[in-house]
Amino acid sequence: MSPKITTELLKQLRQVMKSPKYVQEPVQAYIVPSGDAHQSEYIAPCDCRRAFISGFDGSAGTAIVTEQHAAMWTDGRYFLQAAHQMDNNWTLMKMGLKDTPTQEDWLVSVLPEGSKVGVDPFIIPADQWKRMSKALRSAGHDLVPVKENLIDTIWTDCPQRPCKPLIMLDLSYTGVSWRDKIVALRSKMAERKVLWFVVTALDEVAWLFNLRGSDVEYNPVFFAYAVIGMNTIRLFIDGDRMMDPAVREHLQLDSTLEPEFKIQVMPYGSILSELQAVGAGLSPKEKVWLSDKASYALTEAIPKAYRYLTPYTPICIAKAVKNASETEGMRRAHIKDAVALCELFNWLEKEVVPKGTVTEIIAADKAEEFRSQQKDFVELSFATISSTGPNGAIIHYKPVPETNRTLSVNEIYLLDSGAQYKDGTTDVTRTMHFGTPSAYEKECFTYVLKGHIAVSAAIFPNGTKGHLLDSFARSALWDCGLDYLHGTGHGVGSFLNVHEGPCGISYKTFADEPLEAGMIVSDEPGYYEDGSFGIRIENVVLVIPAETKYNFKNRGSLTFEPLTLVPIQTKMIDVNLLTQKECNWVNDYHQKCREVIGAELERQGRREALRWLIQETEPLIRVQ
Amino acid sequence: MSPKITTELLKQLRQVMKSPKYVQEPVQAYIVPSGDAHQSEYIAPCDCRRAFISGFDGSAGTAIVTEQHAAMWTDGRYFLQAAHQMDNNWTLMKMGLKDTPTQEDWLVSVLPEGSKVGVDPFIIPADQWKRMSKALRSAGHDLVPVKENLIDTIWTDCPQRPCKPLIMLDLSYTGVSWRDKIVALRSKMAERKVLWFVVTALDEVAWLFNLRGSDVEYNPVFFAYAVIGMNTIRLFIDGDRMMDPAVREHLQLDSTLEPEFKIQVMPYGSILSELQAVGAGLSPKEKVWLSDKASYALTEAIPKAYRYLTPYTPICIAKAVKNASETEGMRRAHIKDAVALCELFNWLEKEVVPKGTVTEIIAADKAEEFRSQQKDFVELSFATISSTGPNGAIIHYKPVPETNRTLSVNEIYLLDSGAQYKDGTTDVTRTMHFGTPSAYEKECFTYVLKGHIAVSAAIFPNGTKGHLLDSFARSALWDCGLDYLHGTGHGVGSFLNVHEGPCGISYKTFADEPLEAGMIVSDEPGYYEDGSFGIRIENVVLVIPAETKYNFKNRGSLTFEPLTLVPIQTKMIDVNLLTQKECNWVNDYHQKCREVIGAELERQGRREALRWLIQETEPLIRVQ
User: Fold this and answer.
1) N or C: which end of chain A has fewer CB within 10 A?
2) CB count, 10 Å around CB of B463?
């Protein structure tokens, strides 16, 4: 992977930063955030402005360009990747390390007195605007909205915004109709005494209307906004997608409906002016509910006194707690996904060992091929991380021809992959050795496994926030001086984004909502040694009630049930580092893999994969 | 304990809330926070306004009185105590429970439209003012500063503000002179480009000048402020304390000094006007550094553009990391404290069992008596929690004649106590049974012990914040559905406040600073069964570097060394619930108690206590 040469691009950007054609006054710095106008984590090619200007195309990062400097903030998952993808014009700012300045502090340290810092108001979330604007103002600078996106002005071959057909989900998948979701949302609005709710996140629009799309790769969403009033529903969406009779039928656009369920379809681009009109028509005490992560542009459309901002919207919270139909769908999806992976690992073991002809890309493609054979497969849920040896230490690695390595019996292989099925979203990581792992590799793998089990088997009170569980995943690593520089888990959508809020498991102190039965998160501790190998063990787990001996304050307890049912390679385990309880956990888990996935492999007539499964799920025996 | 009758007081308060003599416009609600003008946790009698108006005298709580309601917010430590101490005029708001409204939400729900909410601007911290003011404003109400404290206007027999003599600490105790502390502070100020630093917390003033006082019971502090410029030092303090030649000598008030170390002594009450003068004289880019917890009144004295606010001051952070002299002092203090407790427990065992004549108060007094026999004893570090049976479930219980219970062989006894010695501050909890504990009591005790050990023996990377360790203390309790409703640990001062920032171990997401070698915190998980018993095991522990097998990213690791060396009652332990590692921890700990405390008991000729120590530190044997 050679870095993108950005000298000329930066020169052009610095020119438009001073050009009266685009800015009222010259800006001395320009911020290029990661997201799109919906603050999406994964974005469409037309929104990959940060990657365009810097070359760094990881899923998280913020670029800031000043007259003299170009700097990129990203987190531990991407330190190596960003360093590889960016040329010498760029300084990498490693977030989470003690000496790394915040964007604000850095700007204050490099800007000349009284500078203007520009940003696209549609791209920056309102809460970030507020924080940054305040910090800059207190140092004598100004954050200013630049209406025209300056990257777009120099991006001559910028791709078109996608506008793909929609997928309708019926009740058997969603469990709740869009009308009932609107009713529930309005009741939350009434509770908080707000009259309007603005849906800005793409997955929230999709969830609310029981629709899916494919405007963004891996995320089954479509570009749209919605504004829900107590008696009105406005959907802002482009293209001829609303001409599809099935979509019209699904949304009952042509039916005689009670007026409060009549959906008004409006152009995507009219959201700002419509919202400004809503804002202008408000009487005192009438409030509009927005996420505090909605864009600065949309937030500003509502006068401050009328805004009701929360970190998580009622849709975000409702969406996170999966109902019975969604949970059953997720179970089905994970069974199919495990079948595909058993096929893959069986195939790899046969191909890799004798022939040495399988590269990371071939393995990733093969994984996709096996997944695509399963019912209701739609697409992958993220770019497959297929990495062997040193590539495994690049936490969010994606194999490309320049880095593509051949799998061998001498290196650890890490596969983090998942798919979108119509009934659910999967995300699983397994770390395998096809030869003989070293004692050190086994030791590290076993610590990671101990952390994985510590979270998966944890019992904790109702109302506990996920971040309180993060250290359980690290304790075994910490004991011998090891650690990993990423969170332990993220929420997972139901045929929706593979990363979703409002819950998660992380050492970062973020305002996660308490875990509730029905929520689904990943459990994925790891260990990475730069230049050598990467280890990660990831299951998607469902929050379920736990039976306990006592019940303090009648609060009830929760624990996790693994939805992912793919064998964990026992060859990599140093059994003597496990406690008896941990050993039993592995054996019980493998027994369940045998039963559930075994039956499905049998049903699908996949005999070889079944043989592989049986062999990989032999019980561990602890000699002590 | 019978509740305080507050009907008449509330009537009077509601009158002054409308009286033009005290308020420009009537206030519909009046907030009575817990703290004093220095945001102290422990306060002088003249500052106990919340206790005066409500009867509830726990260390944490906020009262709000409206025309119709009177409500008290407090945390899990105080639910029972507050319920006992307050009459029917008061509603208890249990913080931390899901359905308890915040003060802001509650105010919005009960106030008539366009209300004014009053508060003493010297008592409310600026960050709380900001949050509350914003929430009220967005609901159409106003938070207003009421200059005269309304409680003081109805508190006819309010005690005088204390003004006791000062204690000087020489270098053998502090390790660093006040001059060197000023130099270090000015270098931090230069780093942040601030010209002035305002010292508002009483323990920060005391630490900075190597002085101690006794204006507040248990906390060796004195009423004072300081304002440090790059070339000036102003100390705001009252009384004839500055006439003491030893104090003058210590502060070099009469020496020919470089002007930047010359201390100007000013009246305590002149801080506001002096600070306003500083604020008025600032040029652009000149900043004044204040804690964001400083009072609203002092914060407002500095125009907004000139304020530099941080959650923790450089003094708070420097004070938390104990130097070698302080650490050695803390060790000495804990050895003396353990000697006193060995004497006490030996005495209790002899008195309680045969005679049944020892009450909670007698036991507490006896503990103080034994402590006061030790060298450099100054006073207790907090009100002794001496509680038996059901009283043990009142987390911050203090025995009074109405509740005083006799210790018996049938109940669990919990003693949480500590002292101020000139060389250090102690805080230790032991839970004992003088008869035969039930299997259930032993089970609960053992879970608490497992939690205590999990924290004490934890190894974690440099830079880890204490809140990431909190769940380790709960895991064994959680496994069987139990928990406790308080944090796990707090910072401990060096002959200073027994609770100090900026570090701690808590499930609450607060902005604690990372743990560093030299910091000192408590480790005190518990379990409480309302109406039956309370269990808590508390040591004060020192953060020390840990040796680990590997060293990820060269970060280094930390662990804890117990400074408290008092036997943990083995009779209460169900050995079979311990792992071998935990069992070894207990045995190693008891071995150290024998060696270190045994030698000191020997030296002090305390033979009986030594016999008791030896008997209590017999190694556990795990049969499995």
Assistant:
1) C
2) 14
Which one-letter DSSP state was computed for residue B216?
B
Cis peptide before B502 (omega within 30 of 0): yes
Test A481 with B459 for CB contact under 8 angstroms: yes
Q: Which residues in chain B have their CB less than 8 angstroms from residue A551's CB?
A: 481
The secondary structure element, H or E, covering residue A185 is helix A178-191
DSSP 8-class letter at B99:
T
Q: Does B551 touch chain A (CB under 8 A)?
A: yes
Q: What is the pLDDT of residues A460-508, one digit of tens each?
A: 999 999 999 999 999 999 999 999 999 999 999 999 999 998 999 999 8
A105 CB near a chain B CB, below 8 Å?
A: no
* B550 at interface of A, judged by CB pairs closer than 8 A: yes
**Residue A82: which domain range?**
6-153
Partnered with residue B176 across adjacent β-strands are none
The tokens for A532 are 């050598």
Whole-angstrom distance, CA of residue B195 vs CA of residue B179: 18
Dihedral pair phi/psi, residue B306, rounded to 5°: -100, 0
How far apart, in whole angstroms, are the C-alpha atoms of residue B534 and residue B554?
43
- In this predicted structure, the answer to whether residue A622 has a pLDDT above a threshold of 90 is no
By CA distance, what is B134's nearest residue in A? A305
A604 in contact with B at a CB cutoff of 8 Å?
A: no
Q: CA nearest A338: which of A559, A541, A609?
A: A609
Confirm if B215 and B222 have CB atoms less than 8 A apart.
yes
Three-state secondary structure call for residue A73: strand
* pTM for the whole structure: 0.92
Give contacts of B552 with chain A, Cβ < 8 Å. Answer: 477, 481-483
Same domain, B350 and B461: yes
The pairing of beta strand A211-212 with beta strand A307-310: unpaired
CB-CB neighbors (< 8 A) of A285 in chain B = 140
Given B318, B350, B373, the domain boundary residue is B318
Task: Looking at the structure, tell me whether residues A467 and A562 fall in a common domain.
Answer: yes
CA pair distance B534, B539, nearest whole angstrom: 17
Note whether A483 contacts B555, CB cutoff 8 Å. yes
- Residue A555, chain B, CB below 8 Å: the answer is yes
Q: Does A577 touch chain B (CB under 8 A)?
A: no
Instruction: Tell whether the model's pLDDT for residue A525 goes beyond 70.
Output: yes
The pLDDT of residue B101 is above 70:
yes
Q: What angle do CA A534, A539, A545 make, to 5 degrees?
A: 145
Backbone φ and ψ for B419, nearest 5 degrees, come out as -140, 160
**A624: pLDDT strictly greater than 70:** no
Report if residue B621 sits inside a domain.
Answer: no
| Number of Cα atoms under 13 Å in the Cβ half of residue A225 | 25
In this prediction, residue B77 has a pLDDT band, given cuts at 50, 70 and 90, of confident
If one counts every other C-beta atom within 10 angstroms of the C-beta of residue A237, the result is 22
At A41, the pLDDT band (50, 70, 90 cuts) reads confident
Question: Residue A239's pLDDT band (boundaries 50, 70, 90)?
Answer: confident
The answer to whether residue B139 sits within a structural domain is yes
Distance from CA of B447 to the nearest CA of A (A): 13
Residues B160 and B171: their CA atoms lie apart, in Å, by 33
Residue A502 preceded by cis peptide, ω within 30: yes
What share of chain A has pLDDT > 70, as a percent? 99
Segment B575-591 mean pLDDT: 97
CATH number at residue B384: 3.90.230.10
CB A390 within 8 Å of CB A533: yes
The packing angle between helices A324-355 and A607-616, to 10°, is 90
**Do residues A512 and A317 make contact, with C-beta atoms less than 8 angstroms apart?**
no
Q: Is B403 exposed, middle or buried (0-12, 13-18, 19+ CB in 10 A)?
A: middle
Residue A83 covered by a domain: yes
